[in-house]
Predict the 3D structure of the following.
Amino acid sequence: MFYTTADNAHGLPHDPFKAIVAPRPIGWISTRSRDGAVNLAPYSFFNAISDRPKLVMFSSAGMKDTATFAIESGEFVANLATRDLAAKLNRSSAPAPRGVSEFAFSGLTEAPCRLVTAPRVAESPAALECRVTQSFRPEGLDGRPSENTVVIGEVVAIHIDEAILKDGLVDMALAAPLARLGYFDYAVGDRVFQMRRPRRPDASDV
């Protein structure tokens, strides 16, 4: 099948776009507003975009509390979403009034960070403390801004639970990170294999 996105006439029960761009890492973003309100929510439009400096981004459909708090405070935390925390992560996605902490009704524990005021998820095996460097609404080909707001943060500190370390490396089989697929589907990254980059075009990559 083929269709153009201008009319999006795919004829399927649901738009397949996000199912094709998959799996996507989940940014489990915690923030604190200027007046002290705490927010926690998962974002599947999330990824690392630079190593030097270390930059991550998340994209919010509309100005929800997470994006609002991150921009006004200049900080956020990206907590690692894992298989064991999937149910609690899902609960934290429920809409809640401003000022109601998703930590509380999701059964999660706030843990203090070192360099930012936003809390991290104590139960998560890894967390990235971030300071906002940019926020903007991306534009389409027609120049019109998207309804999404992109927030980029520089990672200024990293927390790692040594339980997911093996031989000095973060072991993905131990961490079992949770990824977003299309529709209501998720995947767990607990089956790992290695491939090294070939040193020349005719070299084996296995």
Summary: Residues 196 and 205 are 6 Å apart (CA to CA). DSSP finds five helices and 14 strands in the chain.
